[in-house]
Design brief:
Number of helices: 14
Shape: globular
Radius of gyration: 23 Å
Number of strands: 12
Distance between the termini: 83 Å
Structural class: alpha+beta
Strand order of the largest sheet: 2-4-3-12-11-10
Helix content: 25-40%
Low-confidence stretches: 19-30
Mean pLDDT: 90
Strand content: 5-15%
Length: about 400
Amino acid sequence: MTVPRPLKLLLTGAGLLLVLALVIVVAGYVLAPKFYLTRTIFWRESDYKDLEKFPARTIHNAPPVFRFDKLPANNPYASQIEAIASDSSNGSLEDYLDASGTTAFLVIHDDKLLYERYFNGYDETSVNTSFSMAKSFASALVGIAIDEGHIKSVGEPITNYIPELLEKDERFKSITIRHLLTMSSGIKYEEGGNLPWSEEADDTKTYYATNLRELALKNCRIEGKPSEYFEYNNYNPLLVGMILERSTGMSVSRFMEEELWKPLGMEADGSWSLDSTKSGFEKMESGVNARARDFARFGMLFANEGTWRGKQLISRGWVEESTRPDATTDPSSDYQYFWWVNTPDGKSHFSAQGNYGQYIYVAPEKDLVIVRLGKEEGEQGYGYWTSLFEELSTKLDTAAKGSS
């Protein structure tokens, strides 16, 4: 059968287009890690597997490793927790945790794992990414840097450490480190924008840019007066990261390794995702990667007022100041130094929170920490988790039991 010439040309053209399309797709995935635009096109929305996409700097642990006391799965606390949660989860807590995309759920009291469950292919050795819980780690590092004299105080102008900003706008000298930590810097931030290069795409830029230092220096622009209003803004942690680098003379990851990871006796090495191999700057807004138990150790440090195994790793004053609501000097009563502090009834509970339902919830008066990590938030969303954590912290009887 002879194929008519027009049809032959059409088929040949279609084949060439298909080959070209395949080349573009393959090239895009190969180049995605290297360029901002290819990242936004091929990686698209952020994802719980992003720790596999970005380069990362290892945060080494060191012996002796601290071990939580692990109670048997059928201990009385576990049944209490299941009973308390049964109403809010409309049945079995474990069934809801599994169905909601949870990867890890831990309840820790007085160095004991009262409840530890893993789901959706994860186990105790699995590494999860923090998303915005990384900001709370950054807050702790600022406190340590102040304790050690690298930074004078949160009242210092950020231009003491980033003088280049003065070349853009003299008003940057009015912004202090405290303004960054309380998300009240007055720096402009636009979350929307369908196109990655638009001025409204700050969320995309601060997540996918391959040189976050350069991005912060170039894109930060003043919109309002500092401390006038609260606006969740990912330029703030980027500037905090630059201040930590310049004040301590080392990478943020290395500083955390020496001041937190090793002293806490973390169970395993962690890592902090980087903007790119070439730039080598930590994704300050989102990129701490660790096992669930090591996220819990960080929470326990704050539950214990900065003390760990008899050593004061962070001053009590910083722990208290960074996690208490203070609407007298800061515009939001729900947020303090990169910690969420919006708990009812005046309780001094606080939490680190990240996208897709990452939580480290701390109830200091109960010496209680709850960690929930996940692939997604779950259909009941943020309100379900915060209510559950509050209910557990209020109703869970942590008095000593014979089986403990």
